[in-house]
Hints:
Blueprint: E1 16-19, E2 25-27, H1 32-59, H2 73-79, H3 86-89, H4 93-108, H5 120-130, H6 141-164, H7 169-187
Antiparallel strand pairs: 1-2
Helix pairs in contact: 1-2, 1-4, 1-6, 4-5, 5-6
Amino acid sequence: MARETAFKIRVKPHLYEGWGPDGKLSLRRITSATADRIGRVLLSHLMLEHYLDRNLTAIAPRDFDFARPSLSFAQKVDILSGPESYLVATGLVPGIRRVNKIRNSLAHDLRAEISAADVQPLVDYLRHAGRGRGLAIPKDPIVVVETFSALAIAGMVGFASAVDAAGNPSVVEAIKHRTAANKALNATGGRGRPPAR
């Protein structure tokens, strides 16, 4: 006598088509365009996280092991978002947080769409970073994510490299001076002097 086993399957409806004629649960088909779109965002997110890790390692005490505590992407951004932080001084934090939000929405709903409103913090950063440099703002939200991520990563690589070279205290002072200068420049709208009152 066969014994029946009852169990519940918790499925996410966006992942499954339903039960097929063979009695098996069939996965939703993913088009190559959808896979490409998701893959490009996931790669951007993965690269950002790699360089967040690199920046954490650069600023941490030499004996601290980041492999032990399992930090989420958001926790890594929080740690690197102190008041004297490079990420804060350069205005990268809102965009990095938004890339994480976009990645999470795509990871949990394959049908999620990325709108212009979703990438607005990234566009704001690109406009600011490209001011006077002729940087064209992409129209495709996926390209906005990729462009923002590339610029953020370039900055994080430079910062980590400078901190690594900071066995020389003058390098640390130069970084602090540069960060203060960037804050002052941003406060003046890039004009180098306070706005007239």
